[in-house]
Amino acid sequence: MELNQIRYFLNLADTLNFTEAAMRSGISQPTLTRAIQRLEQELGGTLVYRDGKDSRLTALGREIRSEFAAIAESEQRVRAISLNRVHGRRETLTLGIVNTIAPALVTGFLQHALNQMPMLELVLRPITRDVSLEYLLGGQIDGCFCTDPVAGNNKIATVEMFRERLLLAMAQRHILANHASVTLAELSELPYLDRIQCEFRSRVQDHLRERTIIMIPRLRSEREDLIQQAVAEGTGVCMLPERSAIVGGLALRPVDTIDLARVVAFQTISGSGTPLALRQLRVLVEQFSWA
After folding, report:
1. Who contacts 236 (Cβ-Cβ below 8 Å, separation ≥6)?
2. Which domains does the chain have, with CATH numbers?
3. How many CB atoms lie under 10 A from the CB of residue 111?
4. Using CA atoms, how far apart are residues 70 and 90, in angstroms rounded to an integer?
5. Averaged in consecutive runs of 10 residues, what is the pLDDT profile of the chain (291 residues)?
6. For the whole prediction, is pTM greater than 0.90?
7. pLDDT tens, position by position, 180-233
8. Amino acid 161: pLDDT
9. Taking the alpha carbons of 254, 248, 262, 212 in that order, is the dihedral positive or negative?
10. CB-based contacts of 17: which residues, under 8 Å, 6+ apart?
11. Which residues contact 163 (CB under 8 A, 6 or more apart)?
12. What angle separates helix 276-287 from helix 59-82, to the nearest 10 degrees?
């Protein structure tokens, strides 16, 4: 049994598609098929059922998958230790972060991750939500801190970090800061500042329009810091996720009838073919206390 055979089987187990598994493995499909057949002969049992274009793991295939994954991970760990010790190399990962996620929400985790993985180097790339999946699948980033991740793609592994409500942000000295909540009537009379990149933007506009309330922004910007600073100085109010304030002097209050929330998550490509450092980072995300 060779390590290449194990890697080929794991790629096939991840995709259940001989063509895609061969592409991941960097070999032709006939070569992959022969390697799986030799592995089955060596193990004395069938690993994959082939039903036309559909494939599925047998009971034996399911049982050995986790064992093979452990072997592949151990091999990558040995190689990483060798490279780090002999050559002093660092493992570099490029992570996207959607620009509406406040830095404080992830910097604590990043410090924890760098402490746990001393040979890791991270490159952070600000992106917009609408390109996060494209950049991930295209290999432009290794992982992504995103909002409201799209579900149903078996090529993507998603770890939900936390949820946060959408609230109304105002200056701490604003008269409505003394209220437990803000009514739609009160909101309609306030000068409104527009966070153009806000994921909730169209849903809030539709919600207000259905109640014959039209908010005409006095200021629009993609710059989170600019809009929030203007709010803190009393220029107007804006809708803001509850944990996403990046300037001081803000008070956040719920708005009656507006009940929206977003999920902040970490996404990577799924499967055993992802770099060991990325899989280790994903485990740290799962284990981190995001509360």
Report:
1. 190, 191, 192, 193, 218, 219, 230
2. 3-86 (1.10.10.10), 89-161+263-287 (3.40.190.10), 164-261 (3.40.190.10)
3. 10
4. 23
5. 84 85 85 88 87 79 85 76 60 91 92 89 91 89 92 87 96 96 94 92 91 91 94 96 93 95 93 81 92 77
6. no
7. 999 999 999 999 999 998 889 999 999 999 999 988 899 999 999 999 999 999
8. 95
9. positive
10. 55
11. 261, 262, 263, 264
12. 100
Question: Taking the alpha carbons of 226, 227, 229, 234 in that order, is the dihedral positive or negative?
Answer: positive
Q: Among residues 53, 46, 61, 51, which one has the least CA distance to residue 13?
A: 61
| Residues written for the chain | 291
Q: How far is CA 188 from the centre of its chain?
A: 35
Rounded Cα distance, 262 and 249, in Å: 23
Distance CA 104, CA 21 (A): 39
Q: How far is CA 249 from CA 102, 176, 196, 221, 244, in A?
A: 16, 14, 21, 19, 13
